[in-house]
Amino acid sequence: MTTNVERYQRIARFYDLLDAPFERKRYRALRPLLFEGLSGRLLDAGIGTGRNCEFYPPEAEVSGIDTSTAMLELARERCPTLAEGGRLYQMDVTALQFPAASFDNAVSSFLFCVLPDDQQVPALRELGRVVKPGGLIRLLEYVRPRGRLRRAMTYIWQPWIAWAYGASFDRNTEQYIPTAGLELVESQFVFDDLMKMLTVRVVAHPAT
Ligand SMILES: C[S@@+](CC[C@H](N)C(=O)[O-])C[C@H]1O[C@@H](n2cnc3c(N)ncnc32)[C@H](O)[C@@H]1O
User: Where do the structural domains in the chain lie, given as residue ranges?
Assistant: First the structure.
């Protein structure tokens, strides 16, 4: 079975080209919302080719992680500040090599829709561990829409996005938030009923 690492190693060089129409029409307008009210030390989990970089708050110190070296190579070009600062890491979001409370806040865009169901809670727990208590985690993700036409379209797209990106519209990340010991602050549709922004608060670390 193909793993997500293999998928993104394979697709990295085509990724920006394939995503270009969506980036232009949908994502560019939404990415700045990920960072509203966030500052300090930020983690961008599943940084990909670095599409969020131009929207990082200027005063924030951002680190990026991704499992794919090929995606990170492209992020290195797009995010010179992170590259020069040595803050781009090959890491799995389910096993982060940062001490607890290393970050004030974390974001991820289109990472949880590619994480298999059994990795959703471990990934949320890890983000909750590396973000300090009281910090926010903001997620931008696709969901399965309810509207009939858009819903039908997502079933047509499903085989391609599963093969190419390991993605699904049915990850239901929101439902795992309490199990991961986190608090859902806000869940908001940001593009029709197809894309959601989740704002999650780290309540307290298990050991504190
Ligand atoms: C759909 S892309 C999104 C990239 C970027 N965040 C964006 O908004 O364009 C998903 C990214 O998550 C990475 N990824 C997948 N599984 C991961 C994991 N377990 N830990 C860290 N990154 C992962 C992939 O390599 C890929 O770069």
Answer: 4-202
